[in-house]
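Chapter review. Work through the record for 3831_t:CDS:1 before attempting the end-of-chapter questions.
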Amino acid sequence: MSKKKTTSTTSPSPIYIFRGHAEQINCLEFIENNRYLISGDAERNIIIWDMISRRSKIQFKAHKDGVLKVIKCKEKLISYGRDNTLHVWEFDKISNVTDNGNNELIKPEVSLTVNSLNFCKFDLYYEEIGDKCEFLIAVPSAKDSSGIDVWNLTKQKVIATSIGLDQNDKNNKTGTSFF
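Structure tokens for 3831_t:CDS:1:
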């Protein structure tokens, strides 16, 4: 006996609508065992939502252009913007600021100039070494966006550049340069 598959032409009704972004949302990430939701938009905003109260905990302008990606890793909030910057924020400092509209106190602890001319986002690797964390970030290469640059975020320095690009032959995508 076969069962007929039924399809609905209407979308389910939302349980709750979060209001806060006026522009396109580019990224979302649940953190802290789903206690918070972080969102970034095309208007440069990052909003940290409290999932219990369903309200904005904090909202601030993170970049000079749209936010492409935002993640939390350990106690760091890392954002990547269309303004060619990658910012690292101390999460506890951000989450303890009262959202009164005066968010001038929110400043990144680290800012790197990176390539965001394409829509490729970054990837992150971290390793705990004793009581410290070593963070590596892979982003599109500053020389050619078909290559990859790797930054040591902890030391704020490039450790590999143009991965996937031969420095002598732009058509041969096999070379790697390490610093």
